[in-house]
Amino acid sequence: MTAGTAANDTRSRLLDTALKLFSVHGVEGTSLQMIADELGVTKAAVYYHFKTKDEIAEAVAAPAVQELDQVIEAARARRTRGAQIDHALAGFVEVIVRHRLLLGLYNSDPGIQRVINRTFQAPRGEDIKTRMMLVLAGKDPSLADAITVHVVFTGIAMVGGAPEYAGIDDDTLRQHLLDAARRLLGRPRGKGPGKRLPEPALRRSPGV
Amino acid sequence: MTAGTAANDTRSRLLDTALKLFSVHGVEGTSLQMIADELGVTKAAVYYHFKTKDEIAEAVAAPAVQELDQVIEAARARRTRGAQIDHALAGFVEVIVRHRLLLGLYNSDPGIQRVINRTFQAPRGEDIKTRMMLVLAGKDPSLADAITVHVVFTGIAMVGGAPEYAGIDDDTLRQHLLDAARRLLGRPRGKGPGKRLPEPALRRSPGV
User: Could you tell me the CATH number of the domain that includes residue B80?
Assistant: First the structure.
């Protein structure tokens, strides 16, 4: 998931291991010792990187939250409402699929929910879900539109992390989720198999 | 929520109280003693009705699971696919809204998830979510259709229990959720404000 550089290798492996253990045992059911054992290092080596399990959970969730933040900012920079929605949907689905293991955990584990909901606030001092809803539903949407967008938004997030689809490869899941989201929100479909949506900005931004 | 008869009054009050406490403290964070205190009875009085907290959680969730089961059976009895889908959607939304406090708990608390997922299996030995998906998406749906229906299904359940809409009255929430679900799944809308969908069968079945 987090393809770390050589310098960050241990930290990166630690986060990958923590996510896998969280997925099996829940955040509450995973100890620093279990993470150390699974990595084959001492607990002191884990402590070198993180002081608490909450810090690990935050670091596990941070890339997805940052990527969502960038998707929203890039979407908001688009000129037309249609382009904003298209960009937000494609980017949202991209992040969901790239972090599907984390999503599955988020959808079922209050330990990670607590942490993510806290970091959700972080990047720009505003709730990331509220900002994503603002891009997708527009300013002052009717209650009907807000509920429709909310259903699609939460549905995509739930299904993206659903164990039922764990066996489906990323590309297939991404395409189907995006098709479903676009269809459900009344966005026109691509003209044919060669037509691809533009890559979400997070792929093109330097430093990601 | 559960309008008990006089005979079942204590049991019914106990379940209402338990649901409220579960919603505030989580299932794990609620003790039998807390339920007794809130009810103003002794712990022995609680024990008279339920031996464990899991039994209480099961009893809290049971009416919604039974109602969903009846919705599915009644939907399956309809002749056309369209009528089956319409019945299943209307009934699903009805159950979701009637049990929105339970849904909100289910969406955020693994304690109640564990219990409900177990009782979900109960009524006919089959997973209720799978059976609802079968009615909504049909037999052997394409992956695209399965994912679309799954997005709408989980989205409706999440939004129905979402704290964001806690201030909206039941009728308004029900109408908007149903409109959204029908629109998202391509079902025709009612012809006007006077046009109402048929009441879900669970309202008409004897013994409910």
Answer: 1.10.357
Residues near A204 by Cβ (< 8 Å), separated by ≥ 6? none
3-state SS string over B131-200?
HHHHHHHCCCCCHHHHHHHHHHHHHHHHHHCCHHHCCCCHHHHHHHHHHHHHHHCCCCCCCCCCCCCCCC
Tokens 């959607």 locate to B89
CA distance to partner chain B, nearest, from residue A184 (Å): 5
> A180 and B151: CB-CB below 8 Å?
yes
Instruction: State the complex-level ipTM.
Output: 0.80
With a CB cutoff of 8 Å and minimum separation 6, the contacts of B190 are B196, B197
Q: Could you tell me if residue B2 is inside a domain?
A: no
Q: Do B177 and A26 touch (CB under 8 A)?
A: no
Are A202 and A70 within 8 A, CB to CB?
yes
Query: Is residue A204 a contact partner of residue A90, using CB atoms and an 8 Å limit?
Result: no
How open is the CA angle A17-A21-A22, to the nearest 5 degrees? 115
Shortest CA gap A55–chain B (Å): 21
How buried is A196 (Cβ within 10 angstroms: 0-12 exposed, 13-18 middle, 19+ buried)? exposed
Q: Is residue A28 part of a domain?
A: no
What domain range is B159 assigned to?
62-204
Element at A131 (helix H, strand E): helix A128-137
Per-residue pLDDT of chain A (208 residues), as tens digits, is 444 454 478 899 999 999 999 988 888 889 999 999 999 999 999 999 999 988 999 899 889 989 999 999 999 999 999 999 999 999 999 999 999 999 888 877 777 777 777 766 655 556 788 889 999 999 999 999 999 999 999 999 999 998 889 899 999 999 999 999 998 898 887 533 334 444 443 333 333 3
Q: Is residue A29 part of a domain?
A: no
Looking at the 3D structure of chain B, how many domains does it have? Answer: 1
User: Is some CB atom of chain A closer than 8 A to the CB atom of B179?
Assistant: yes
Residue B77 included in any domain: yes
In whole angstroms, how far apart are CA B170 and each of A2, A69, B101?
44, 33, 11
Q: Tell me the Cα Rg of chain B.
A: 18
* Beta-carbon contacts of residue B90 (< 8 Å; ≥ 6 apart): B178, B197, B198, B200
Q: How far is B173 from chain A (nearest CA, A)?
A: 9
